[in-house]
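Side project, low priority. Logging it here so it doesn't get lost.
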Amino acid sequence: MHNILPYLNKNLKGYRFDNIAGAIQLKVEELTLEWVKRAIRKTGIHDIALSGGVFMNVKANMLISQLKEVNNLFVVPSSGDESSPIGCIFLE
């Protein structure tokens, strides 16, 4: 991965950190909502289980749970490798 610091310095220098964080939060929400809706359309599955670091985002999870396409939402309360076996169970 290339060094991102020059890019960030050039494009974000002078912006408040809370404005940058807010913009990133909004983008995470937009992307995860679209990702979940697309997965539901593709699979027809409306009971959703999510895990991983991105899904430790409480606000994004709240918005996902409010989607009309989602019947039930379960978020694995872990973002580390210890949650990998849970996914393996469903692979069988």
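Brief comment: The chain has one domain: 5-91.
Revisit when time allows.
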